[in-house]
Structures are given as structure tokens and as C-alpha cells.
Amino acid sequence: MKLIAEETLLLVIDVQEKIFSAMHEQEKTKQNICRLIEGSKILNIPVVWTEQYPTGLGPTLGEVATALNGAELLEKRTFSCLGNDVVSKKIKSYNKNQTLVCGIETHVCIYQTVQDLLIKNYDVHVVTDAVMSRHKVNHNLGLKKMDALGANMTSVEMALFELQQIASGDTFKALASIIK
Prior knowledge:
By secondary structure, the protein is α/β, with parallel strands linked by helices. The protein has helices spanning 17-20, 26-42, 54-57, 62-67, 85-93, 106-119, 136-149, 156-164, 169-179; strands at residues 8-13, 47-52, 73-76, 98-104, 123-132, 152-154.
């Protein structure tokens, strides 16, 4: 389904210090996550931000946390964001039927969250260049399984320009400056 800004929520999952250093293609993916967050702000898309067991896995990476300034941080222990009542209620409270998903790890928390979102009939868009795993094989397998479940595969640039819909105006200029 076509992304529509007024119907979309961004879910940023578990981009935390202690697990980040083990991730595949970490720097490029971190930059993409920050671009996606900034683009979502420009488009007035609400953001839900989670951390998985921060006592053990540490806080959100500094650059990502800075980009998330203004978003509410929600802690969880479940792999799926929807397995946590507080996070699930927060997502539902926005009354959006489309969800952009980014974060760590593709084959665990991202996959299980996407699976649960699809069960609840959300139109899910996995931002493939803004999700990562420790091992490329797990990353690729997670993407493949989510695609087979019916999630939409997209990229940061593709999603932001699809949400923008027109190549003119101040919003377009602001988005274009993020993408470059």
C-alpha cells in the first residue's frame, strides 16, 4: 500500500550502545536511521522509540538519541514491541494504520514486531537500509521472512519521497537536504 504521511507512524526499535558495536554495516545503517527520524519530523510523522532491557544493553546511541529528541522513550523486555502493553498502547494511541519500522536486530525484535503488527492488520513498511543484525545471513533471512509475511520492503529515500509525494516546496527541500 502507498505510504501516506497522515496515516504513518515511525517505530525506532532498540538502537542501543552495547549491541550496536557487533552489528553488520553499522555506520551506514546508523546514518540511515538518523535520516529517517529527521525526515519523519519534517513530515510531522509521530515516532515511537524503544529500548530493550537498557540496564543490560545500554542506552540508545548518542546520535540516534539526539535525533529522537522530543520522542518518548519506552522500555521493554519482550522481543516484539507489541508484547509490551505500554508500547502496544502507545502505538495504538496514535491511531495510524501504517508503520515504518527501523532498528536492531532484523531477525529478532524487528521480525517479531513486524509479525505482530501484521497480525493486527497494520500496513507495515520495513526500512531495509535502516535495520541491521550482527550477521548478514540473519539480516537477510529476517528481511526475506518479513517480505513473505506481507510486509512492504522500502528504503529511507524511497519511503521519505513516497510520503512527500511532490518534488516542490519547503518540505521537499528539507527532505532532499537530508537524503544528499
